[in-house]
Design a protein that fits this description.
It holds the Pfam family Fucosidase_C. The chain is an alpha/beta fold and 503 residues long. It is 31% helix and 17% strand.
Length: 503
């Protein structure tokens, strides 16, 4: 087990960056040197998530690599796990992937050979960056390296470990995909981030000598991609085989927050060691779930538009979430204090599939009208308003839990309540987002307008309203379909409310 020794001098620098004065006092008691990882993790965990990320709310995930060539998975599974599904008989999808592979590529065709077919000849980073900006996303997270170890930037460790060209600059595209996209994204107001897998399924060094893999491959590779591209987000993954001490994650993150060129801006997630999710790191993550309840820690739900992160040719139209569902997910997640990282899976030739691009465009259209109710908001004392009936329960957990947002907000089962309104707030300004507009009036229960307040619908303008005890009653505007400000969900804005709590 790796134990980091922190001298008083190094500890002082670490604490200056990562913890507040109160925490500094508790860690540096009696000025003794720290000889375990506890102090380093206390400093890392004590570093507040930068405000830009908390305000951003919506990001775009991108899974893209050699697995985009076969672009195959069983429906409901991940295409980016193609190599592992092909090689591991214990995987549920092994038989289906093996049969597909042998039929279409032959028994002797190795996964590594897909790198030469990963051409990206139609990749236009400027067009991608424009699509991301128009979607309303405020940050992008590109897979710099997935679990297959293939790097989308020039990296000597990858080539050396695999004993063959294993980067996008010396195989397939012959291009620095990370660098090209980073350059174009930074011409917009969107932040550029990177996904980085800690482990690699079939890296010879990882399979035989974990310590050498960490010291000679993982850490220098991590520093290389950070130094070259200065990402604003690092989404770590593949941590589950070993504890953080074996990965030397605390060492990497201490370097990141104290010495790296992006130390002040960068945001990290919670995937840095076995069993550490929702315990260590920066923002907490959930995957194909409902996110987390509002709490003291920043969190993010990440998912694909359909079932797979990487592009999967087996997924049909009906497997994709509608624009309406994705917009309602965004609003619901933000109302509970989370961020939404929505994935696209580009094709091997470098295109964003048109259906995915359409979804991004329609989310952007909605945010053009309703963005002020999303960006830079905080939670209200009540995150939502339920209709009559029994409140629905959201599935909780890290991975693949039940979350039917349309049932939650539009069509609950008999006897169950629905979320009539989702609340977000900026100071004394309250926003109420609804998926079903009433005919005559909308009542905001337990909401009291302050003196001088106005009530409006975003994209429409001021509305008539009255205060009836603790309830605020809004008269609905007369809107025919041609005058609707947007589709799928609508936002009421109360410019100033009476606050009765400390939030």
């Amino acid at each position: 087990m790796f134990v980091k020794i922190i001298t008083p001098l190094i500890l002082a620098g670490l604490l200056q960056t990562c913890v507040c004065a109160q925490q500094t006092a508790s860690v540096a008691t009696k000025g003794k040197a720290i000889t375990d990882e506890a102090a380093a993790w206390k400093a890392i965990d004590g570093r507040d998530t930068p405000q830009w990320w908390k305000d951003a709310k919506f990001g775009i995930f991108i899974h893209w690599g050699p697995y985009s060539v076969p672009a195959f998975s069983e429906v409901g599974r991940y295409s980016e796990w193609y190599w592992e599904d092909l090689m591991n008989p214990k995987r549920r999808s092994h038989k289906a992937v093996k049969a597909f592979h042998e039929k279409n590529y032959g028994k002797d065709f190795k996964y590594e050979e897909f790198a030469d077919q990963f051409k990206c000849e139609l990749f236009d980073p400027a067009q991608w960056a424009e699509a991301f900006e128009e979607s309303g996303a405020k940050y992008v997270v590109l897979t710099s390296k997935h679990h297959d170890g293939y790097c989308l930037w020039p990296n000597e460790q990858a080539d050396k470990s695999f004993g063959r060209p294993w980067c996008s600059t010396n195989s397939g595209p012959m291009r620095d995909l990370v660098g090209e996209l980073t350059e174009e994204v930074r011409k917009t107001d969107v932040k550029m981030g990177l996904y980085f897998s800690i482990y690699e399924w079939y890296n010879p060094l990882y399979k035989t000598k974990l310590n050498s893999f960490v010291d000679d491959h993982l850490i220098p590779q991590f520093k290389d991609v950070v130094n070259k591209y200065e990402p604003a987000v690092i989404f770590s993954d593949g941590e589950w085989d070993h504890p953080a001490a074996d990965w030397k994650s605390a060492e990497m993150l201490t370097w990141l927050f104290n010495e790296s060129p992006c130390k002040d801006e960068v945001v990290i997630n919670d995937r840095w060691g076995k069993g550490d999710r929702h315990k260590h790191g920066g923002y907490y993550t959930t995957e194909y779930g409902a996110g987390l309840p509002d709490g003291t820690n920043a969190w993010e739900e990440n998912r694909g538009m359909a079932h797979s992160f990487g592009y999967s040719r087996t997924e049909r139209f009906e497997d994709y979430n509608s624009s309406e569902s994705l917009i309602l997910m965004l609003a619901d997640i933000v109302s509970r204090g989370g961020n939404f990282l929505l994935d696209i899976g580009p094709t091997a030739d470098g295109r964003i599939p048109p259906l995915m691009e359409e979804r991004l465009s329609e989310i952007g259209d909605w945010l053009d009208v309703n963005g002020e109710a999303i960006y830079g908001t905080t939670t209200h004392s009540s995150t939502c308003q339920w209709s009559t009936g029994k409140a629905q329960e959201l599935g909780r957990g890290n991975y693949r839990v039940k979350y039917d947002v349309e049932k939650l907000m539009k069509s609950p089962e008999e006897g169950m309540a629905r979320k009539e309104l989702l609340f977000t707030r900026k100071g004394e300004t309250l926003y109420a987002i609804c998926a079903l507009l009433p005919d005559e009036t909308m009542t905001l229960h337990h909401v009291q307008a302050a003196e001088g307040a106005t009530v409006s619908m975003l994209g429409v303008g001021e509305l008539e309203w009255e205060q009836s005890g603790e309830d605020l009653i809004i008269k609905m505007p007369k809107l025919n379909p041609s005058k609707m400000p947007c589709e799928h969900a609508w936002t009421f804005k109360v410019s100033k409310i009476q606050l009765h709590d400390a939030s």
